[in-house]
Amino acid sequence: MAHIQVLEGVPGIRSLVLFRPETGKPLYDLAQVLLRGESPLSEAERELIAAYVSHRNECMFCMSSHAAAARCLYGDQKNTVDEVLADMQQSHINDKLKALLHIAGKVQILGSEVTPEDIVTARNLGATDREIHDTVLIAATFCMFNRYVDGLASLTPTEPEVYAEMGERMAKGYSLPQP
Amino acid sequence: MPYIPLEDHLPGITGLLEYSKETAAPIRELTQVLLRGPSTLTEGERELIATVVSHRNQCKFCVTAHTAAADVLLGEHETSAKVKEDISTAPVSDKMKALLTIAAQVQQSGKAVTTESIQKAKDVGATDIEIHDTVLIAALFCLYNRYVDGLATVTPSQPEFYQGLGQRLKDHGYNRLPQGYDHLKKNNPVH
What ipTM was assigned to the predicted interfaces of this complex? Predict the structure, then answer.
């Protein structure tokens, strides 16, 4: 049961933003601009970073829902998502994306963990300023979302079908749920 | 030196928020609602939550800036210093001790928040909204601290810089200044 009185049966962040729409609106706006707005990273890549960080934070709700969104966006390459979550370094993604996910993993621990060498490695593989910026901000943002969702013990469904449906909705974008 | 090109006259978070204005807008709005919007927690109390979390994330820029903001709002320096040292003996109400304890757990991980610490907060009068906002402020500063340090932004060393920033956060809150930040180029980066 959630730590505060939210609508029963509503999962994860949806229950929290319905409880407090004043903060819910900028939270959904941030998700939309960061994951669907202009960026040199594809929407699929950005959802993958979100899922990867949520996985490392052991946030089951965010990991499952953003992995589902990433699978939708990767289409026939959807196995990529499960490969990365199982073992990022051994996965078939390109080296630049590996370097960016490595940076995201450092951000998940703490900002100061990111080293100049991590950045040089990513740049040598072709990562741009904007890609590095977006990676760090997506990772930092999911360190917030994961703590929000689990810190208030919001409802975490366990059925894979629930997340598959959620992923399809999320792939289309983020807008504040209405009561 | 920052990992990406940021304006020299905008150290810490400000340079990042100006680098990416599209993402900055909702981040600023969220912060303004949480730290300056209507609440049963005072602005000073909410700045203390930001201070404790930034301190535990070892983000020097954010901890110094929010300590300065808390000090300006509270009119003294003792409380912010004591909450960083030891929440349980700091000169704050029992409700604030319970909320700061929850914030400290959020800093570690969402899963670190215990049913006992929530019950304790409720027993000393914390409302659901106060608990919600405490968790979200703590989570938001886990974002800020990682954003600021993860891109190696500049951390000024002069105390006057933070006194000026603390005053600006009291006077203007977290909205983007209507005139932007170009005026800081000519002066010391204070106001």
Answer: 0.98
